[in-house]
Amino acid sequence: xxxxxxxxxxxxxxxxxxxxxxxxxxxxxxxxxxxxxxxxxxxxxxxxxxxxxxxxxxxxxxxxxxxxxxxxxxxxxxxxxxxxxxxxxxxxxxxxxxxxxxxxxxxxxxxxxxxxxxxxxxxxxxxxxxxxxxxxxxxxxxxxxxxxxxxxxxxxxxxxxxxxxxxxxxxxxxxxxxxxxxxxxxxxxxxxxxxxxxxxxxxxxxxxxxxxxxxxxxxxxxxxxxxxxxxxxxxxxxxxxxxxxxxxxxxxxxxxxxxxxxxxxxxxxxxxxxxxxxxxxxxxxxxxxxxxxxxxxxxxxxxxxxxxxxxxxxxxxxxxxxxx
Length: 324
What we know:
By secondary structure, this protein is of the alpha+beta class. The chain has helices at about 5-15, 20, 25, 30-40, 45-50, 60-65, 85-95, 105-125, 150-160, 170-175, 185-195, 205-215, 240-245, 275-280, 305; strands at about 45, 70-75, 80-85, 130-135, 160-165, 185, 200, 220-225, 230-235, 255, 260-265, 285, 290-295, 315.
């Protein structure tokens, strides 16, 4: 195979959209494009790879693995390699590569559209919310209400391993200057990122400090909506593709509500309007000199209660059915 054919073969193998083709050479070297194309639909040993491509640098497998572009399988004493999907490769580049800032604004716009398209497809095809909001636990007066599925701290404390990684959404969309390195990966997914040097391994105390930093910057705790979450993200409304899936595209399987809802204590409320400013979902409004909540819009994140200077907002648990 001629080396100048590397990108053409990669484009065809991964069915790369036409506008994304011009960016691939800025993300992958020709050697990386070659090896990823070859591994796209098979598991291959390192010896077979180097027999196929004798000119490849000796460290190509190690470097591609650490960048997160290839997956390593161990079967007995043998190691096999296979390629990530195109979407996986692009995402790993965004959260890990030191050359991301070298891409032009046009390049990032193309990547943004590609990431958005994939996320919207996932949301539309899902039968339940892809992500789910977690309440800020300090906003709940009766902590006995905090069942594990809705308590961010419990996920961290029960995880065998935790890693902090760059937020994919903020790194991609760049719509704000809120902290980038505040998203947490748990257990096997944490190991995935740590092994590849994409994420930094941290202990429970450090992970709880990350949650505190997120809260101070008005970020919303959320998890991927499964029994044993792999991600505990801290999302902003301007960059998070799942919040935008709901607010901008009206996809109700993008992000789900917590089991809690905000309640206003009218006798304490001085109608300062800070809750209107802080609510990411537009649930608060001032009507006839009274602050009111649209229950349909409230996601139970707790930012309103956390910021209320009069402690006039509480988070209360909804019906038991809402815990499912």
